[in-house]
Amino acid sequence: MATAARRLVPFHLRPPGARPLAAVAAAPHSRKRDAVSCKSTGKTRAKNKAKDTTMWRPQRRELEEHLKRRTRSAGAFDPGLYRRHSHSHHVPVLLGEVLAAFRRPLPLRSFVDCTLGAAGHSLAMMEAHPEMELHVGMDVDPSALEIGQRHIEAFLVSRATGEGGEDALQGTLRAYTHVKNFKYIKHVLGGVDESLADGSSGVDGILIDLGMSSMQVNRSDRGFSVLNDGPLDMRMDPKATLTAEDILNSWPELEVGRILRDYGEESNWQSLQRRIVKERKTGGLHSTGELVKLIQRTCTISGGRQGWIKTATRVFQALRIAVNDELQTLEDALHSCFDCLAPDGRLAVISFHSLEDRIVKQTFLELIRGDEAEDDEEDLVCADIDDEDEPWFKQRVQGTNGTVLTKRPTTPSQEEEKLNQRCRSAKLRVIQKA
């Protein structure tokens, strides 16, 4: 069936080493070293814990800042760039760094934005690359795609009415948008031009931004927000059938616990699992507000990032990943995107939590190894690069099929974090096809 396009126009991945479900039931309810309960029992323990926290918190902050400096973007921050391409709907993350990833001697004639959103990254790419001849925007969220589509249409109109000489140099840009998940990139590109998907041609650049946009988080009816009451939905694709409410009220108890443990990396997952299942006897959970209240009762620490809000964020993350089959979808999409690249083409991925980043890192290494997939990372050629044209890629990993340009991911600059607090956990990795 042909892809519907406008001319402008249940995941169960178990991470490596995870225990089988049967082992979950046999796991102890607490471990002195591995698990930290949200609930404090006894004044003495609370006092000692507070004393210990006071002692190690400065050292921890110092270590975290040291590790952050190792990956922070070295590029100059351009506030004007962010002002031009930010909207009330969304502020694009690592915008300057994404532009840098595709700024090179080779022309960028074709570009795919797999998560179009409000089109902040796409508009900046179009502006920076007047030689671009083809742009394809994809998004599984039709409401987000509609906003991005309008912004691209406005850009094309303004460019068409610009200076004649400059417009002649720019040539014609064909732009398409598709309501599709990025794992279907081959199908989408095949509908535009078969040579783009079968390996005979390929595209010059592909971007995947895995972050939640503000226009999704701020809408309480989508169920993504911890602070706004709404239905327990969390579907990126409104046509999908599975919701967070289904998981919480009907999935087996062991599966609920596995989701909280593996996808949310929540140390207090067992207590939350028991309370969630217990709620089913009195009607279950049907709104984000009810789920938040359950988490607050489980965690007696006061509000703040170190209290129930942090736990709630992890729980919401876990449910969103399960509802949208995000991790398996990501791994499949990375392979498909790499296949669609032209020689010397680049794929850039922005992730926002450790599970995503781990998959991107491991899959990138698998892609460049080719038949040498059994080799260790140390067996690949790692080069320290002092390149004035590309100073943002200081360490590269060379393989048979390509090069990982970011041995360590690039993270936002301090200036960007001050502008947009939601970007603080973003990580950018880039791979180039041989």
How would you describe this structure to a colleague?
With 434 residues, this protein is of the alpha/beta class. Among the domains are: 196 residues, Rossmann fold (3-Layer(aba) Sandwich); 104 residues, Orthogonal Bundle (DNA polymerase, domain 1). It is built from 18 helices and ten strands. Strands 1-4-3-2-5-6-10-9-8-7 form a ten-stranded mixed sheet, sandwiched between helices. The radius of gyration is 23 Å and the shape is globular. The two termini are 33 Å apart.
End-to-end Cα distance, whole Å, is 33 Å
Which descriptor suits the 3D outline? globular
CATH homologous superfamily annotation of the domain at 79-214 and 327-374 and 409-420: Vaccinia Virus protein VP39
Unreliable spans are 9-43
**Named CATH architecture of the domain at 79-214 and 327-374 and 409-420:** 3-Layer(aba) Sandwich
Q: Please identify the oligomeric state.
A: single chain
CATH class of the domain at 79-214 and 327-374 and 409-420: Alpha Beta
Strand content: 5-15%
Radius of gyration in whole Å, from Cα? 23 Å
Structural class: alpha/beta
Count of alpha/pi helices: 18
